[in-house]
Inverse folding.
């Protein structure tokens, strides 16, 4: 299902599948597979911020990487600005990479510890032949200032920076090549609470200034709401619900979205003591439930839910849900 | 609960707090000199009470718990001042054998990542039973039966069948339930929970928080809950101590702490959390706290928070603010606390744009 929009989408993902082989059973059983991403379709318009929310095992990180072809999707199509990038030869794909960048969760693992900040940013520019010669240093200074760091810090190494500052460097590196799409995979999850807001504000400012399309991946509905125009809720590799942000939080339709929202502990002791919204654990992705993957934890599931995979249907304008019970 | 033949002297008087930490000071030897991780911390926990110790990385919250358990990393960590009493007994004066008994029987512990605390090659039933045999003196059969009972108490379905499972066969949430079962095996008076839900998914976190509430009602233990998450604090705590860079900066019963925080750091932390419980459209820009966490090797002079505080004045740099009691049970380490009375005043006081005020609440 494509989410219709007025503007032509920058990114148009259709029926994307990402299947991983899993280890064979210890007694030579048949090889199992994990359907990490299962028939996902989504679009992102130029300059749009789409939040992608799910718990561990939902496939959100895999989806982000499949879209960028950091891993090769099993099937489906990914069109970027009209071009099906899954069919592009490697050489042309490399050229396109500067338009699609990523910021990873862990700024301690994503920066080369033996390179200075200037070298890290310079490498990104080099790869795409940008800002050569005398333009190099001013460009690096400009990038650092944009992310709230100073020119004086360009000769330092990553270990001399705090987690929040490292994430700023990672963002500067991603933006160095002037991408049109940025995938931010849990960019604040590893940061202290007081630093998270800084980095979220920075991402929001840069996104608006540069007109970036942003796929913001998070496990935290609170963080996503604050940044996103639209939100996609993922569970065990499948989309449960998609809606405009305000609509999703005010009128969550899917029982899983409702549970996710209810589960967030709020800093308000007068509302404490609500029972946990979901019982039990998420099923193993090796053996997902038949029909609706959420049905084993769903408070309103019926026998029919085990029989059919609910299609992602339009519930209201710009609001889609995959549930046959609502 | 199994009866525990304790050689450990417990003072029963209810007037004595279960935990009394006075002027605790913990230092770590580093290559560049000495780092003060906890600087003059005092707190108490009453029997059956849940005290939340809140802070970000480097605040000293976990080090405080390790000091209480006498488990500071050796040889670098050192308790250089203060006293910790548990049920009236000075823990510093106990022999190592007596201290082991305190850790096994009197105090239970759960941590962020249960996988690293569990033995990967022993069934979970055996791990619970081991605790019971060593510390409660139960025989093999009795311990095994009691282990199944404990798995049931932490709401693990089919406990008898699950008891023979190994840790890797369980989900993160189930493993944390097992850790709780081990921690509660000998009926401790105190449960120390250090970020026990931080590594869990939000729907599983809600289950564990609900379980802890239920178990506290059933077992009656006090809880020292260590977390960075004020949302979790609001769900569980009776009282809250907020730490920053090794010092307590605010302490209050949970209601006033959230309704009328007086320390700019507490206020700012609350305002930097995205809220989904506000009416849609009532949210504005997040209010970030500027700057970074201070380096413990080079703490700012005076109030450690002053470089990040929009309300800091010259006097804040000159001296460390007193830890003042401003209402019964409400202490604040800020010389300007009288000026910051509530959410509305904060935006103006701090020169924050009105779009930032966190909305309807």
């Amino acid at each position: 299902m494509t989410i219709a929009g007025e503007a032509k989408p920058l990114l148009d993902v259709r029926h994307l599948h990402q299947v991983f082989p899993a280890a064979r059973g210890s007694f030579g059983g048949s090889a199992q597979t994990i359907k990490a991403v299962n028939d996902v379709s989504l679009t992102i318009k130029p300059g749009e911020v789409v939040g992608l929310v799910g718990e561990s095992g939902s496939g959100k990180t895999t989806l982000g990487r499949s879209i960028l072809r950091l891993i090769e999707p099993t099937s489906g199509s990914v069109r970027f600005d009209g071009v099906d990038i899954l069919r592009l030869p490697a050489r042309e794909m490399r050229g396109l990479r500067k338009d699609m960048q990523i910021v990873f969760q862990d700024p301690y693992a994503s920066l080369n510890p033996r390179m200075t900040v200037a070298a890290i940013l310079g490498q990104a520019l080099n790869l795409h032949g940008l800002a050569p010669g005398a333009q190099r240093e001013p460009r690096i200074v400009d990038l650092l200032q944009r992310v709230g760091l100073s020119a004086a810090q360009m000769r330092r190494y990553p270990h001399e920076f705090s987690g929040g500052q490292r994430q700023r460097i990672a963002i500067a590196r991603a933006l160095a090549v002037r991408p049109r799409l940025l995938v931010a995979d849990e960019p604040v999850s590893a940061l202290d609470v007081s630093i998270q807001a800084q980095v979220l504000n920075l991402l929001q400012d840069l996104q608006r200034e540069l007109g970036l399309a942003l796929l913001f991946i998070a496990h935290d509905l609170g963080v996503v709401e604050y940044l996103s125009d639209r939100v996609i809720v993922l569970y065990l590799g499948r989309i449960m619900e998609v809606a405009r942000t305000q609509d999703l939080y005010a009128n969550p339709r899917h029982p899983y979205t409702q549970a996710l929202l209810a589960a967030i502990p709020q800093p308000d002791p007068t509302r404490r003591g609500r029972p946990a919204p979901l019982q039990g654990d998420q099923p193993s992705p090796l053996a997902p439930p038949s029909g609706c993957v959420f049905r084993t934890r769903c408070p309103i599931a019926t026998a029919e839910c085990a029989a059919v995979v609910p299609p992602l249907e339009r519930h209201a304008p710009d609001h889609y849900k995959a549930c046959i019970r609502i | 609960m199994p009866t525990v033949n304790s050689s450990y002297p417990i003072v029963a008087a209810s007037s004595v707090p279960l935990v009394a930490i006075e002027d605790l000071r913990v230092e770590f030897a580093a290559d560049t000199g000495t780092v003060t991780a906890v600087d003059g911390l005092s707190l108490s926990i009453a029997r059956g009470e849940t005290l939340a110790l809140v802070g970000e990385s480097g605040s000293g919250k976990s080090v405080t718990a390790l000091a209480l358990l006498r488990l500071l990393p050796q040889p670098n960590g050192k308790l250089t001042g203060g006293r910790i009493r548990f049920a009236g007994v000075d823990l510093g004066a106990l022999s190592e054998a007596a201290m082991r008994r305190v850790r096994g029987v009197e105090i239970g512990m759960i941590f962020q990542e249960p996988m690293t605390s569990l033995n990967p090659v022993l069934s979970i039933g055996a791990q619970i039973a081991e605790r019971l045999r060593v510390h409660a003196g139960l025989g093999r059969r009795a311990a095994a039966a009691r282990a199944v009972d404990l798995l049931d108490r932490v709401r693990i379905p089919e406990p008898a069948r699950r008891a023979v499972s190994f840790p890797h066969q369980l989900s993160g949430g189930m493993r944390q339930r097992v850790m709780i079962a081990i921690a509660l095996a000998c009926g401790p008076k105190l449960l120390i929970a250090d970020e026990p839900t931080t590594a869990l998914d939000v729907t599983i976190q809600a289950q564990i928080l609900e379980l802890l509430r239920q178990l506290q009602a059933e077992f009656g233990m006090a809880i020292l809950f260590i977390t960075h998450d004020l949302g979790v604090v609001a769900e569980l705590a009776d009282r809250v101590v907020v730490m920053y860079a090794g010092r307590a900066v605010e302490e209050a019963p949970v209601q006033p702490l959230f309704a009328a925080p007086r320390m700019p750091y507490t206020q700012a932390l609350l305002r930097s959390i995205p809220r989904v419980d506000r009416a849609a459209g009532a949210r504005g820009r997040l209010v970030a706290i500027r700057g970074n966490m201070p380096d413990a090797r080079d703490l700012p002079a005076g109030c450690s928070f002053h470089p990040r505080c929009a309300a800091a004045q010259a006097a804040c740099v000159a001296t460390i603010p007193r830890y003042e009691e401003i209402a019964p049970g409400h202490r604040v380490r800020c010389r300007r606390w009288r000026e910051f009375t509530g959410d509305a005043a904060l935006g103006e006081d701090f020169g924050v744009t009105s779009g930032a005020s966190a909305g309807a609440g």
User: Anything to note?
Assistant: Residues 193-210 of chain A form the longest helix (18 residues).
